[in-house]
């Protein structure tokens, strides 16, 4: 009653390989691009009409098709709700995490938007996988690591201080030593955001341990770039305040 059945059938047939040969070689990509809009129009109660098509597109041999879905999976999750997302989207999301960098960047750019929609126990499972984003197919793809640092600043609010210290802290320190200055700069902001997280949650011991680690790793580094990194971290707003409070009250 929402969409005429012939029109819906026409849309679903866009994944047919024969259509790519006779109509448009990128017809599957067009189908993937329009899928969130179709899903919104049909509503989550009619997701079963699109589920098979979505899974077909998610396994398409063309990375551009998978990339298109990766960039919009967070929007589809909002449309479907937490239960359908956990059942039908999480497995595909996990597949995108192991895909080519051209596909992975799609989920990375909206990683926070997707993770915040998951239940806390399911969200916690991704703590083990976040460090995999540090490794890329092409080490010169520094924008990938830059995007990771930006997302981690947002993701901090989704996890408790202990999880941040055990998992995200290591990633932040790695990014602070990146060869590309732009990545290091955004990572310094991430470091300060982690300290603010500890301070806001009264995790003074974790904060003091982290500051001590920064001092040992960067302030006393034998290379000038490490000592420069410490100076830049101190330059970031709020670091001096956090440092003072930890030293005085930690």
From TrEMBL:
Keywords: Repeat. Gene3D superfamilies: Leucine-rich Repeat Variant. GO terms for cellular component: cytoplasm. InterPro entries: ARM-like (IPR011989), ARM-type_fold (IPR016024), PP2A_Regulatory_Subunit_A (IPR051023). GO terms for molecular function: protein phosphatase regulator activity. The keyword Repeat applies. PANTHER family: SERINE/THREONINE-PROTEIN PHOSPHATASE PP2A 65 KDA REGULATORY SUBUNIT, WW-BINDING DOMAIN-CONTAINING PROTEIN-RELATED. This is PP4R1 phosphatase. The gene is Ppp4r1_3.
């Amino acid at each position: 009653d929402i969409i005429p059945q012939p029109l819906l059938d026409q849309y679903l047939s866009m994944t047919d390989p024969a259509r790519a040969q006779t109509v448009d070689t990128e017809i599957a990509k067009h189908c993937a691009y329009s899928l969130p809009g179709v899903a919104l129009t049909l509503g989550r109660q009619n997701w079963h009409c699109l589920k098979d098509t979505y899974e077909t597109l998610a396994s398409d041999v063309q990375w551009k098709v998978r990339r298109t879905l990766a960039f919009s999976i967070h929007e589809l999750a909002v449309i479907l709700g937490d239960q359908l997302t956990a059942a039908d989207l999480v497995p595909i999301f996990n597949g995108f995490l192991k895909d080519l960098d051209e596909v992975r960047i799609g989920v990375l750019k909206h990683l926070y938007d997707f993770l915040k929609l998951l239940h806390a126990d399911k969200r916690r499972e991704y703590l083990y996988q976040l460090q995999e984003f540090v490794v890329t197919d092409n080490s010169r793809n520094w924008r990938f690591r830059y995007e990771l640092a930006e997302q981690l600043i947002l993701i901090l609010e989704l996890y408790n201080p202990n999880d941040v210290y055990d998992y995200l802290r290591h990633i932040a320190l790695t990014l602070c030593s990146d060869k590309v200055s732009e990545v290091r700069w955004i990572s310094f902001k991430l470091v300060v955001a982690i300290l603010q997280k500890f301070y806001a949650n009264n995790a003074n011991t974790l904060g003091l341990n982290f500051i001590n680690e920064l001092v040992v790793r960067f302030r006393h580094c034998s290379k000038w770039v490490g000592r420069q990194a410490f100076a830049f971290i101190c330059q970031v707003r709020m670091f001096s305040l956090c440092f003072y409070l930890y030293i005085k009250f930690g």
